[in-house]
Amino acid sequence: MEQKIVIQKVNQLDTASLMLLVGESSYEGFRHVKRLVNDYEDGANKFDEPGEALFIAYQHDNIVGVCGLNRDPYSNNKDVGRARRLYVSPRARRSGIARMLMDSVVAEATKHYKMLVLKTHNPIADAFYRSIGFSVDCDSENNSHFLRLERHTPSDVFTS
């Protein structure tokens, strides 16, 4: 039986619903999902400013992944967004969920930004981001990868 995956943009996050992901990510030695929950709970980052979004991946009504989009806090350029806190549960990996989450982030980012950046030190994540079109950014201490975004304006669309 095929396992249906749904990516949902959420406006309100019940942080308790992410506790399984927090536990799994912590067990793997990652702190970023716990940081997402802590920042959301204390109001430091609710992914609710203009140009921001939070996406949750569901598989059979279970949360199996998360990824957020913020305006890049490390840039003075308002045209730069930052992909943040991507995580997919080990039990759901290798099924395209990370790509689906990033596709959602990129689609949303394209509406607001000219460039999307992120930072990772994980070699597996590096290979993943390269595989979906990101370039390595060797010139920045705040970013490891970037993706130039194409905005489509009404004049870009041709009708026959």
From TrEMBL:
SUPFAM superfamilies xref list: Acyl-CoA N-acyltransferases (Nat) (SSF55729)
Record GO terms (molecular function): acyltransferase activity, transferring groups other than amino-acyl groups
Pfam families according to UniProt: Acetyltransf_7
Keyword Acyltransferase tagged: yes
InterPro entries recorded: Acyl_CoA_acyltransferase, Bact_Acetyltransf, GNAT_dom
Alphabetical keyword list: Acyltransferase, Transferase
PROSITE patterns according to UniProt: GNAT
Domain N-acetyltransferase span(s) in chain numbering: 5-154
Designated name of the protein: N-acetyltransferase
Organism: Paenibacillus xerothermodurans
